């Protein structure tokens, strides 16, 4: 059989987690929290399951959850959306990204993405018959060159995908970035897919500029969010997409034939969590900033160059002073010989630069971070 994705194999995240398990290494590779979901969330999940709420939810989402998401958006971004027509609950943010891309991409269309990029973007574009146009962000600042973006746009360009706060670089788009993005979207009549799954995790006073904050940008956007990142429950695979009515309608046409609907008890539990413990979201940035600081401080005696993390729960390390190995080989060495699992940055690129940078996840217990840093400082 001829493969539709001939150049893809098992993801690096699965590979590194498998190696970490095999060599009993500390796993700072795959981006999942080591700590559990909030007690209320788990309690309400069990409650709704026991109450018999175990059948299909409405395809666009349980009304109670849509309403709570709308209330959150109004509180955080001062933007009022109609929950019934604009909010679609999905089986994780990756499903939402896939559906948004399928909904708007025709054969021959081009979609601009920024490397290093989350690994689901390109396959989803290609499965829709489109072409991913890669624009490289350069270390150590990883800032977008908007002139380069403008030059990359042509009559085939359909959309731009942004990710802020950005995985894997841990950088955040600035107000100037947003202004330049808006100008290009309007000038070329483009759509936007805004991946904002780490929207509540920003550090050192940095502000998250959501596409929901600007009505002109929102009018041509799909905004993707993740409950898994926010409530430490990545295994639940729960997310949502917010879009204006016309785009949401197209999104739902595809969504109904991908998952149709998402886990009903979880939707009801999440609605209760948003209603009763919304402070969790407000405290998330400080919680993860403390985690970041613990790891950064513990690495001060190492030979790594620690790059600035402005958001997400990731930290980049430059190991140029330690080894000449490429980053994939270096990560394999770290697992087998040092006992720490990381992710090589090159796998996030279509054409990787010759950087020697790895990504660590610090969504872990303090003891885990300290133990990992101790091993890394011995290099």
- What is the tally of beta strands? 13
Provide the number of structural domains. Answer: 2
The description of the largest β-sheet is: 7 strands, mixed
Structural class: alpha/beta
Radius of gyration equals 20 Å
> Mean of the pLDDT scores?
96
CATH class of the largest domain: Alpha Beta
User: The CATH topology of the largest domain is what?
Assistant: Aspartate Aminotransferase, domain 2
- Gross morphology is globular
Low-pLDDT ranges:
none
Task: List its salient traits.
7-stranded mixed sheet; alpha/beta; about 375 residues; Aspartate Aminotransferase, domain 1; about 40% helix; Aspartate Aminotransferase, domain 2; PyrdxlP-dep_Trfase_small; transferase; pyridoxal phosphate; 2 domains; pyridoxal phosphate binding
Written overview of the protein:
With 379 residues, the protein is an alpha/beta fold. It has 2 domains: 12-37 and 280-377, Aspartate Aminotransferase, domain 1 (Alpha-Beta Complex); 39-275, Type I PLP-dependent aspartate aminotransferase-like (Major domain) (Aspartate Aminotransferase, domain 2, 3-Layer(aba) Sandwich), CATH 3.40.640. The protein has 15 helices and 13 strands. It has helices spanning 12-23, 39-50, 63-77, 83-86, 93-104, 121-127, 146-152, 175-188, 215-218, 227-230, 245-255, 264-276, 279-298, 327-338, 366-377, and strands at 26-27, 87-90, 110-115, 131-136, 157-163, 191-195, 221-226, 239-242, 305-306, 314-318, 340-341, 343-344, 357-361. The strands form 3 sheets. A 7-stranded mixed sheet has the order 2-8-7-6-5-3-4, with helices on both faces. The model has no long low-confidence stretch (mean pLDDT 96).
């Amino acid at each position: 059989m001829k493969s539709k994705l001939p150049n893809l194999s098992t993801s690096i995240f699965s590979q590194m987690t498998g190696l970490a398990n095999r060599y009993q290494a500390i796993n700072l590779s795959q981006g999942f929290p080591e700590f559990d979901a909030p007690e209320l969330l788990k309690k309400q999940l069990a409650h709704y399951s026991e109450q018999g709420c175990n059948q299909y939810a409405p395809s666009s989402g349980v009304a109670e959850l849509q309403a709570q998401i709308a209330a959150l958006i109004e509180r955080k971004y001062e933007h009022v959306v109609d929950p019934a027509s604009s909010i679609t609950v999905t089986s994780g943010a990756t499903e939402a990204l896939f559906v948004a891309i399928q909904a708007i991409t025709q054969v021959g269309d081009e979609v601009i993405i920024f490397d290093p990029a989350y690994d689901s973007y390109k396959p989803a574009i290609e499965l829709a018959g489109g072409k991913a146009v890669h624009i490289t962000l350069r270390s150590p600042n990883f800032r977008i060159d908007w002139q380069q973006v403008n030059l990359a746009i042509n009559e085939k360009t359909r959309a731009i995908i942004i990710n802020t706060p950005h995985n894997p670089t841990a950088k955040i788009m600035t107000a100037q970035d947003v202004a330049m993005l808006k100008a290009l979207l309007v000038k070329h009549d483009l759509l936007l897919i805004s991946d904002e799954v780490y929207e509540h995790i920003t550090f050192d006073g940095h502000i998250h500029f959501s596409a929901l904050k600007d009505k002109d940008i929102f009018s041509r956007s799909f905004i993707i969010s993740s409950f898994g990142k926010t409530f430490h429950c990545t295994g639940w695979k729960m997310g949502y997409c917010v879009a204006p009515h016309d785009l949401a309608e197209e999104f739902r046409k595809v969504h109904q034939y991908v998952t149709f609907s998402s886990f009903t008890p979880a939707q009801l539990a999440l609605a209760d969590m948003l209603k009763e413990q919304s402070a969790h979201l407000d405290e998330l940035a400080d919680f993860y900033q403390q985690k970041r600081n613990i790891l950064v401080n513990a690495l001060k005696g190492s030979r790594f160059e620690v790059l600035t993390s402005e958001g997400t729960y990731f930290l980049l390390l430059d190991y140029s002073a330690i080894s000449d190995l490429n980053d994939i080989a270096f990560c394999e060495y770290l697992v087998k010989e040092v006992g720490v699992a990381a992710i090589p940055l090159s796998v996030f690129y279509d054409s990787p630069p010759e950087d020697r940078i790895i990504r660590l996840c610090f969504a872990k217990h303090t003891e885990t971070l300290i133990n990992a840093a101790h091993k890394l400082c011995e290099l």
